[in-house]
Amino acid sequence: MPASARVVVVDADDHDEFVDNNGQATELANKVSALREGVDDDKKRRVFSIVGFGGLGKTNAGEGAQVAVSQTFSGKDLQGLLRRVLRQITQPIVDRETVDDAEITQLQAAAASSQPNVNIDTMDVDDLATELKKRLDNKSPLDVNLRLDDTESKQLFISKAFGSKSPCPDDLKDAMESILKKCSGLPLAIVSIASLLANYKPPEGKEMWETIKNSIGSQMENNPTLEGMRQILTLSYNHLPHHLKACMMYLSIFPEDYMIAKDRLLKRWISEGLIVEKRGLCQMDLAEGYFNELVSRNMVDMVISKATFNLHQGIREDQFRVHDMMLEILVSKSLESNFVSLVGEFTLLRVLDLEDCTGLTNKHMSCICRMYLLRFLSLRGTDVKVMPSRIGDLEHLQMLDVRQTQLKDLPKSVTKLEKLEHLLFFDQGDSGWMLPQGINKMKALRQLKKAAVVFDAKVAEEIGELGQLQELAIFVDTGKKMNNGVVKKLASSLSKMYSLRWLDIGNLDAEPPPQLLRYLRICGHMNRLPDWVESLHDLVELQLRWTHVDGFQLFNVLCKLPNLKRLFLGSYFIHGKHMVVHSSQHFRELKELILGYTPSSCDVYEFEEGSMPNVERLVVYFGDQTKKIVGIEHFKKLKEVEYIGSKDNLRPVLEPVEQMNNKRDVSQRITIKVRYDW
């Protein structure tokens, strides 16, 4: 990475990562910072190689130090790789905005004098390697030991096995010491074994501790190897309960380093029959429980991917990944047990996931509508234009995802899908499905996103009969004359839906919805935020867009929500030139604040001391507007700032964050992300 690059450290207390090595990440960041500030003797270093076998924590150390991380190299184009690296060393790349012509000439002359008679394009692999070695021989290595010392190993083990505030019981200390010796300071090994043993507490679990201790090969203590790491991860897999083994093996169908959407996977588990029904519990809740147990055992790495968060739509998607070494084991286990196999007869399929596939035609759709055993059908991101009416013949279908397609509507025959639990619909234009009469027959529906009700009081009334519905996105189409009778009936229906936990409403003055809502999104102009919002004591996330409300009234209501952790104030959320969150408006639980595009209206965002003391992430979308942020220094626990806008508009608002960083230790610095899109 460039020596001039700004390097900061994320002080993330993330217990869901495979490998916990914040100390090593900080050490690497300190050395990179020393180079950047001119303390390091070697001013020319541009690449830091973090090498070692799987489980050392290389990726997390690099990402923790905010160093760009390159994943596994296949070795298929070694010659091309060496050629590209050598070119970067011998042929300087300069920024013509910051370097004048005289300096460019000087750099090029220096490069030419250091590499006479070298033709990189004609060299074979051996010559390239020799030349590269010659040019790197005079560079001193930057060493960062990724293994944990005895104290760090013990702290990590105890935090995973007993919790960060609980000590190791006396009768397990000998077994713990022996296990730690065999793990030899390897973070992934320690986390895997500790997470496994967390399920076995003394006195009943002591025998399992001894069994695990004896199962780890003693050769790991003196000569840790890749094979030894595989043995430890295989041990973790082998001690999973039977129902979790099947769910883990299912992950073998995904490629290495693939970010898997959690919601997508849970629904596929259910459709494949991997989630056994239990009386009193819905399968989605069971699947969520299975997934959470895998996360707690550190079998998968849970990530809330910021890249999937869309500032315009307010879309957030939980994602996760599987460690590449664990994936190797899962593929091996899957092959041994013939868990995944090719199906010759497609009519027997239960899951068909075509997300982001291109070239889907009407002929393909006709064939799909004859797969009568289908339980899961995803056409998300495809170019399908028409949904055949025969879709209603798929009587076993539980999940239908047609988001981001070219569909403008769905046939009325969809109402025949009485087992359907999840119906996800919106096209590229963010419109919705015009709900037909008969929607009340779909009693199994738990998730309906997003729908539109237009001029049909009967449909508005039928929605109130969907007693299982937990997530609903719905709006009244303002493209036609508003029917107040429909609006009132829809509002009345929503107030009766006691299972509802997630609600997205647009262009609708709703009556008070059920009190157990955890997510609420309101879109559409209103004079003031409804007073009933402050009664939603379980609300965790709130999003507002196009509301144009008064700022003082807005924050007066929202500060009374005791569990509000994420606040998204989207486009045109406020009117007035100056937004102030007062000290008296205390948001005690708020962790994340996102401010959307407010063109030519609000010029100042001000935060008084004590108003939002626990905010950890701040995102502001400036667009083409110049705005002031006053009081950011009062965000004492701030960890990440993301600004989106034009280069000129962002310079003034970045300075206060830089000043905050200058007063912090390197391990506590705020991560600054800037995106120029204007």
Structural features:
678 residues, alpha/beta, Arc Repressor Mutant, subunit A, 15-stranded parallel beta sheet, three-stranded antiparallel beta sheet, 23 strands, 32% helix, globular, Disease_R_plants, Apaf_helical, plant defense, LRR_dom_sf, repeat
Write structural notes for this entry:
By secondary structure, this protein is α/β, with parallel strands linked by helices. Among the domains are: 115 residues, no CATH class; 89 residues; 96 residues, Arc Repressor Mutant, subunit A, CATH 1.10.10; 141 residues, Leucine-rich repeat, LRR (right-handed beta-alpha superhelix) (Alpha-Beta Horseshoe), CATH 3.80.10. Helices cover 32% and strands 14% of the residues. It contains 20 helices and 23 strands. The two termini are 26 Å apart.
Q: Tell the overall outline.
A: globular
Mean pLDDT: 80
CATH architecture of the domain at 538-678: Alpha-Beta Horseshoe
CATH class of the domain at 538-678: Alpha Beta
**Major beta sheet summary:** 15 strands, parallel
Q: What is the share of helical residues?
A: 25-40%
- Uncertain runs: 1-19, 66-72, 93-99, 305-309
Total beta strands: 23
CATH fold-type name of the domain at 538-678: Leucine-rich repeat, LRR (right-handed beta-alpha superhelix)
Q: Over all CA atoms, what is the radius of gyration?
A: 28 Å
- Ends apart, CA distance between termini: 26 Å
How many H/I helical runs?
A: 20
GO molecular function: ADP binding
Domain Disease resistance R13L4/SHOC-2-like LRR: 341-645
InterPro entries: Apaf_helical, Disease_R_plants, LRR_dom_sf, LRR_R13L4/SHOC2-like, P-loop_NTPase, WH-like_DNA-bd_sf, WHD_DRP
Keywords: Plant defense, Repeat
